[in-house]
Design brief:
The structure is a homodimer. Chain A is α+β, with helices and mostly antiparallel strands. Helix content of chain A is 19%, strand content 42%. Chain A has three helices and twelve strands.
């Protein structure tokens, strides 16, 4: 295989700081010695969990304002500073659905949009062991949806489920024989 | 099923305009009548193609500065204003690898990070029909990599392939019996 590709940072500047993301402009040196600007959306990263409850998969339905659509997704959320990704996944599951799990296994990590967004998501698999009261964030309105494995696959393949982390988690869980 | 969730725009403001993305802050009315701020990274959207060439899958290896890592992905790129997503996918394939295809079928569309990013990606499947000269953008350094189906699955499941659109495209192609 050829040598790995790489780029070297020459300078960096924060050009926007928002509630969730920060935008940085970096001048980089390319492989041929030229320079280029790289626009970087810096994101805290996220965690999500594919949770199985009594033979069905637990999803959440919520309005995603940024894409102007209600989506069906596995429970997920942004990482808080210093938070362990597994704890974050189980916290989001509990807050959004009320379900709790004793343990979770890492399915893998993914980059949702590596051309512009630094976000890295940790994807877990878990089996629900009990149920409490959902406690979503004050600006979060979510409904739990339980789907059989067959319904889940059908909705991915007919396009009803179009959230990329959800599709990735299902594929990874299937590859590990967990689904 | 309960009524769909939704949020209503009260006002919007562009707070950052960059080379690729624009950030908008929207005040929205929530379901309970309260208001909240939604930070929206507005992205032009993208297209990508899972291309098969002589029984193997054609990927590209490139350094992704924003995540500080070299990734293995299906050929992809941002949509140009007014561009047809299928044309964009085949253009990116040609530019990045030199391969060209007569036709492509839509596998599906995905939202990579619907909590913050408006990006929607169109995923295609195609069979390579010929080869010309790669013509990547001046700031783009990519290497073509051909993998058998077995190698592709292995690298997804062992974490070497961690780009979400690539994983989604493989899963969707498999569900349609194309891979």
């Amino acid at each position: 295989m050829d040598a790995p590709h790489s780029e070297r940072t020459l300078s960096r500047e924060t050009v926007f700081s928002g509630q969730i993301i920060r935008v940085e402009h970096h001048q980089v040196e390319l492989e041929n010695g030229n320079t280029a600007l790289r626009e970087c959306c810096v994101h805290p990263g996220g965690s999500a969990v594919l949770a199985v409850w009594g033979g069905r998969v637990l999803l959440v339905r919520q309005f995603r304002y940024v894409v102007n659509k209600e989506l069906l997704e596995i429970p997920a959320g942004k990482l808080k500073s210093g938070e362990d990704p597994k704890e974050a996944a189980l916290r989001e599951l509990r807050e959004e659905t009320g379900a709790f799990c004793e343990e979770a296994v890492l399915l893998g990590t993914i980059y949702p949009s590596p051309g512009i967004l630094s976000e890295r998501d940790y994807l877990y698999f878990a089996r629900v062991s009990g149920e409490g009261r959902a406690e979503p964030d004050p600006d979060e309105f979510v409904s739990s949806v339980l789907l059989t494995k067959e319904e889940l696959f059908k909705r991915i393949h007919n396009g009803e489920i179009c959230d990329s982390k959800t599709i990735c988690a299902v594929f990874l869980a299937r590859g590990k024989g967990l689904l």
